[in-house]
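Continuing from the previous page of notes. For each protein in this section, the sequence appears first, followed by its structure tokens. Read the first protein now.
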Amino acid sequence: MSFIKALDISASGLYAQKKRMEVVAQNIANADTILTDTMEPYRCKVTVMSAVKDKKNFSSILDKFSTPKEGDGVAVSVVESLDEPFKLVYNPEHPLAEDGYVKMPNVDTTTEMLELLSATRAYEANITVLNATKAMFTQALRIGK
């Protein structure tokens, strides 16, 4: 694996974890938002990560028969959590109450904080890999002198 490819993979991991932290921050910030543009409470968003598939060109097809399979990084997308129902809070005096219950966002702040902690650790791990790759590259340049 080339050094540049290793740096690219680490960079895609850093971007994915940064995006994950942004989504968690957005969820926590909107944990009490009961009315959005869609006239519903805020829906929790989730990041979905997947491996980036290698590019399909002629040389890559030939190369896969002679070299081990290598990844090209990670792709991240943001989706709304539509399956989770809204939380119902009993508050009959609230103007948006239906049958005495107010629909609240489906955001669990405890889960979001754990997700943030996990994303932070994964970000730090990607930085460690990036620094190790840079150190190996530097040592390789010193050997060439």
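Done with the first. The second protein uses the same format. Note its length before scrolling.
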Amino acid sequence: MKFFSGFSLRDESYLFEDFIQETQYCVCGFSYGAIKALKHTQELRKRGQRVDRLQLFSPAFFQTKSQKFKRLQTLAYGISKEAYLEQFINSCFLPYKRKEVLDTETSIEELEELLDYKWLLSDLVPLRDAGVKIEVYLGGEDKIIDVEAAREFFLRAATVTYIKNANHFLQID
């Protein structure tokens, strides 16, 4: 199993252990890491390598957000990266108490990629049609992404598990 971490995070896969399929042919990603997991899966498939399952946990879905929202995010990051990341992680855990997560170095370019990434059915459908089981997990209380738009989009190409009271980390307490 290959896991890709969320923006500014590392080693948070333990938060998803109830969902992750521990096989060598599974690729997983959380939030920003979901984008990386998709790209990695596409690359593996281009090289003829086997992937049975692609698991996307709270995939970064900002394509319904305005350019103003995205500019404000990058502006706040540029003013104080530390304050931005602290607020961002706190928001990921809302409405529940924050848990400890490990961080890693980030860049404005990564934030821009995260905010500007556009999920396309033309990226997902060929994987699904080639036999890759695509699973998307969304939390109903997620304060980070546009959950309803993500749910509507991913239902067209994947199995979507909607966890009504879960936050961005898919935690319910």
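What the second structure shows: The chain has a mean pLDDT of 96. Strands lie at 2-4, 9-10, 26-30, 53-57, 102-103, 133-139, 159-163. We return to this in next week's lecture.
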